[in-house]
Design brief:
This protein has 234 residues and is an alpha+beta fold. Helices cover 25% and strands 22% of the residues. The strands form three sheets. The protein has a five-stranded antiparallel sheet.
Length: 234
């Protein structure tokens, strides 16, 4: 993916990741599955006794509530066999919440809207939250910022100038609606957006949080600065 391309949407809701890209000429590239071993994988819940116990399923998924309890008391399910994103970090979080709930602890249901999606390709792809299109469809008035790694000293020095960071904010309250990245190491960088969104951090707070230089991660701050008309390094 060239630096003069624009990823309009990254879809991680199904098996694999699909990127919808527009070039500088405005041509939309057809969606394509990217490199994923997950493509074509189907859960296997047959012949494990679900029918005998009476556990409810929908096609190849076990139905559970917010804390992973099935319709049969005492039986729980997490991970790829349940509806939702088939991601290792999702299954891990679900397992922890499930056991804590069983132990009688007070826990909050997992926010699936703040789950990072990562593709370990070259370059890497990472995203969390709403896309620009989804935000508009939900009625948000938005600010969008983008910072290319071609303008990053660290990226150029490392020989990885391809890619960018794109951020989407709500104009009214400054809520960080979404973040989308393509480039070297972005699967590590996306955690900043996940934590910031969990803490309901605004764009202005990101701008005032000093990021180290030279790093790839400062592209996040620069993209936010672009969204708010304060970028000085483009």
């Amino acid at each position: 993916i060239m630096t003069n391309s624009s990823v309009e949407r990254i879809d991680t809701s199904g098996n694999g990741v699909k990127a919808f890209v527009k070039t500088a000429k405005g041509e939309e590239v057809l969606e394509a599955d990217i490199l994923l071993s997950a493509v074509g994988i189907k859960t296997n819940i047959e012949n494990i006794g679900l029918e005998e116990v009476g556990i409810a399923t929908d096609r190849d998924k076990i139905l559970v509530n917010d804390f992973y309890q099935t319709n049969v008391p005492g039986y729980y399910a997490i991970g790829d066999v349940t509806p939702g994103q088939a991601l290792a970090h999702v299954a891990s979080a679900e397992g922890i919440l499930c056991v804590e709930k069983i132990a009688g602890m007070h826990v909050e249901a997992l926010d699936y809207g703040n789950i990072p999606g990562c593709t370990y390709a070259t370059p890497e792809i990472a995203s969390v939250g709403l896309t620009e299109k989804a935000a508009k469809e939900k009625g948000y008035e938005i600010k969008v910022g983008k910072f290319p790694f071609s303008a990053s000293g660290k990226a150029k020095a490392a020989g990885t100038p391809d890619g960018f960071v794109k951020v989407i904010f709500d104009v009214k309250y400054g809520e960080w609606l979404g973040c989308h990245m393509i480039g070297a190491g972005v699967t590590d960088m996306i955690a900043e957006a996940v934590v910031a969104r969990k803490l309901e951090t605004t764009g202005h707070e990101i701008l005032k949080a000093v990021h180290p230089h030279p790093t790839m991660s400062e592209a996040v701050m620069e993209a936010v600065a672009d969204a708010y008309g304060e970028v000085i390094h483009l």
